[in-house]
Amino acid sequence: MNLPLRTLGVYPNAWGVNQTFADITRPQKTPQPVILSTETKTLRIDLAKTAIIVIDMQNDFCHPDGWLSHIGVDVSPARKPIEPLQKLLPQLRSHGVPVIWLNWGNRPDLLNISAGLLHVYNSTGESVGLGDPLPKNGAKVLMAGSWAAAVVDELEQLPDDIPIDKYRMSGFWDTPLDSILRNLGTTTILFAGVNADQCVFTTLCDANFLGYDCILLQDCTATTSPEYCWLATLYNIKQCFGFVTDSSAIFTALAENNRKS
Fold first, then answer.
1. pTM of this prediction?
2. Catalytic residue positions, numbered
């Protein structure tokens, strides 16, 4: 029992072990409580148990040469979260909040993609859909490793950030997202990215069903869908699934945390 312990697992979900002894108490992170204003309530959250998930800020959805633009969608709304995220993410990282990039990143053989999902991206079977090359640059639509699936250049990804490929609108299906969040000790999730009424909303709903506390960052989220879809998403989140705030409220909470520390 007096021998040195080696760490197994990811902090804080880690054991200390040696040949004869295992400490399975799991060390706790030092709490970082902050007060955060939202549109419905004032919250006390723990930054030590918080992560931000940035969803689908990828070339296919946000770049003029990507898939959405190819099929005639105006992608300028999808680019609106870029600037606030450029300001917010470094601040969250400096407070130890993990940054998770949750992006479409399909297998080349599409073996885990159903016909119904393929239909969403290619309703006639004759257009450019999942895995097909974009006419402008040949990048394969939302294929892992392709330019099409890459995060837009304007958003910096750091080595300590956590990339996760997803294969459905919800990032919890057929992915390690839930396991990673639980290993990190996460209980509160900040949501950002596109499209608010599709991949962001379905991921947020599943997070709520799994017991996570969900907070949508309104100015760090957007959609290319009609305005009524955006309004319905905000209503449903506030009514049923969590809370809505913006990056300015996060900055205020972080500034207060800095003042106290």
1. 0.96
2. 56, 166, 199
